[in-house]
């Protein structure tokens, strides 16, 4: 009987007519869950919370609910996702395989009005909210079938990574850069991001020469997948929808590999691994240990994923919005240093 009631309620909702695009069903969507501190700049509000407590924080948010929040580190990434959605809806009006952005926050519901007002001010299409009132939202990520979780809280990101969910901690660039509003650009490090940390373990434990030898011996053996392989795969599926409509040259999604590996000594295994997975990457940059920041300034990605904080910091220094993926052997060395 309860199941019949649920079906009846669902049928009623599905038959309502609206001009706004409905959020796609979670099983059809690429769901990106983003925290309020990643989407908006809440530095001042966070300081009130830490110095004056929860009640003063909630009071401040309610007193300022008509004051629009400034963009945070994930803001332009979300805007780019929505541009891709708009293009997809033009080509595939009935298709639900598109991005669905969910606001996933441990804020209390009383703060929700300011978040909604700010989202509407910027014209963002974020219909699903999960506000957990001080509790960690990570447990809800699987219920939302989350493909990627972005937060400013490194502890929650670590919790999500350990639960097997692609996640990263967001950091704002230290300079204002102009990001493309017609093409989503996503840059990935390789080892411990797209791929496992197998090769990084050898570097840390045995040095570069042993690493080069290992990679050449295993050139035809695909690397195991890392935490963001699935999200790269999701981007590839979206790209192919544009290719199918003869829109390859105008595709609004572009992907980049930016790795400290050297091409001649250890690049072949990376490219053969991607090929074995049936994945394409639009651009590959093998930097042989050179800084990544100058290349990223040329790419201007909406987000750059890396597992090592010194690469994240180097990217930020030159203005790139970077996201730290706390996965693999590099975390042990980072914590002990």
From TrEMBL:
TM ranges: none
GO terms for cellular component: cytosol
Pfam families: 5-nucleotidase
Single GO MF annotation: nucleotide binding
One GO BP annotation of this record: adenosine metabolic process
Protein name according to UniProt: 5NT1B nucleotidase
Organism the protein comes from: Pitta sordida
